[in-house]
Amino acid sequence: MDYLLTEQQKLLQQLCRQIAEEKIAKAAKDFDAKEEFPWDIIKILAQSDLFAIYIPQEYGGVLALDENKNVGGVLDLCVVTEELSRACGGVAVCYAASALGTFPIILYGNEEQKKKYLPDLASGKKLAAFALTEPEAGSDASAIKTTATKEKDYYALNGIKHFITNGGEAQVYVVVAMTDKTKGPRGASAFIVEKGTPGFSFGKKEDKLGIRASVTRELIFDNCKVPATNLLGKEGLGFIVTMKTFDISRPGVAAQALGIAQGALDLALKYTKQREQFGKTISSFQGIQWMLADMATQIEAARALIYSVARMIDSGNTSVSKESAMAKLFASDVAMKVTTDAVQLFGGYGYMRDYPIEKYMRDAKITQIYEGTNQIQRNIIALQLIKEMAK
Amino acid sequence: MNIIVCIKQVPETTEVKINPQTNTLIREGVKSIINPFDMYAIEEAIRLKEKYTGKTTVITMGPPQAEEAIREALAMGIDEGILVTDRSFAGSDTWATSYTLSQAILKISVFDLIICGKQASDGDTAQVGPGISAHLDIPQVTYVKRIREVNQGFASVERMTEEGYEVISVSLPCLFTVVKEINEPRLPSLRGLLRAKQAKILKWSAKDLGLDEKKIGLNGSPTQVVKIFTPAARPQGMIFHGETAEVVEKLAEALKKEIV
Fold first, then answer.
1. Best residue in B193, B195, B197 for a mutation probing chain A (most A CBs within 10 Å)
2. Gap between the Cα atoms of A329 and A373, Å rounded
3. What would the pLDDT profile of B21-79 be if each residue is shown by its tens digit?
4. CA-CA to A284 of 20 to 30 Å: which in A295, A363, B181, B234?
5. How many domains does chain B have?
6. Are strands A172-178 and A128-131 parallel, antiparallel or unpaired?
7. Residue in chain A lying closest to B75 (CA)
8. CATH number of the structural domain spanning residue B133
9. Do A49 and B197 touch (CB under 8 A)?
10. Are B178 and B44 in contact (CB under 8 A)?
């Protein structure tokens, strides 16, 4: 399918394919086994300007934006994430999670905050992370217990965030905390917190099923004094910041799922053309062919949806919650289905760690869970459908 | 510091096919790439520029499509590219090629360092780099595996040998040929790719360089390829196992049978 990518997007796609094939693919097995953060790869991504594609030129990025827009490069981000995920879903999320931590600053940062933080994030000198989830606040984000109490010219943060992607490795965190518990969801606020701020430390590193190249850690705030100037937007905007961030970051997760699915199909196709049973390559059996055809069709449908939503965001449309949730929901379900079928096509070998395919199935699972479980995505879609009908 | 990198566009293949009638490489249908050894030269030039500041220029002699190789180098971070191209260059041997390149380098005039890959993957002669330095009458160090420092008109480098390496101090301007141990070439950046796409590449002909036509192309080539062929595969060796006396006997017998 021709998605009519721009010349720049095609160059980007080619570049990422080269990085994925030459640098990531051969190291993926090792990252998975050792669960080590792939700093060498992150440096290559940074040197290739990949962290700069969704950051405006005036803040050190390569994104040329019209005056009336403050967000763009989402399709570019999806193209990159997809290509990286074909080789390793874990490396791809290290990359995409920095975008997730950067978007709130692009969306709600004031001029000083953007000038201070975006250039180092665009060059890849620093990574970002987004911290919302807590041990008792997952799908019910409004149940967060971390507090931010204003005192003079700072906020004192207290509480624990967990399951934070890039936790410990990122230097810039956007943290959502309650500034006024009595107001419920409207009492949350978002802060930029730098690694190294006194009172900010890291807890447990999780041992995960998949995406093991990425790190997931606990963040601990013990009377952590964050300058009042690091408040994003204003007090009470915490959940708006979160929702608007997820609206534009979810296509990225969808692209990760898409890349994982495509990578699994690539391997399955190659394997079925080599593997012989009953005196023939198994790709000559119609039962296998139909599975491959279904996998490819689902992948193409996911890609079409993701690219359309990404283009919608890049065009300046801000009412994208439903579409963005659809892309994430659909692509991640496709990834789970496709990777499971890919393992099936490998038969017994598919179940073994000596073969690369089982990793794709493990990596795919998380895409149905994070940045809002697929059940939450369905809530978002349904709520919007009902709202639209009431208009 | 002004650095010139000489590169060659070669076919991307480990199995080069030869036209037995014309004794030339069959290039149709084979993708062209920058000679892999030249990638190390490009990378080293960019690193030196990052360390000492200055300007990097890549230069290649070849047909018009060699422009792609120059754009690739620009995407990695080289500042400027020059394509030395003319029909009259066809058939150049390593003498004529190094002469032509040396004259193009003289036209650039300002340079401290010339870096080449140790040899090209198609011809494998390793003669053009040293040839350029001879034509320019500047010092050369071949098989450089590390540039320790460049300071006050001198460079200190490590030259790889079979047993280890030599440390050589050499006055500038000079020419190095580099081995793959020297660095790991970077991938291009998006900004580099965009810049390379737009970049204007200088094209110099024999006339632009004011070259004597007796010294270029086939006329200027004292060597010629008489015959080109794929060497026959060598038969596998034999290894004898056992007690020394027994093995010696077996070996002697085999020698009698096979050779004597």
1. B193
2. 8
3. 777 777 677 888 999 999 999 999 999 999 999 999 999 999 999 999 999 999 999 99
4. A363
5. 1
6. parallel
7. A48
8. 3.40.50.620
9. no
10. yes
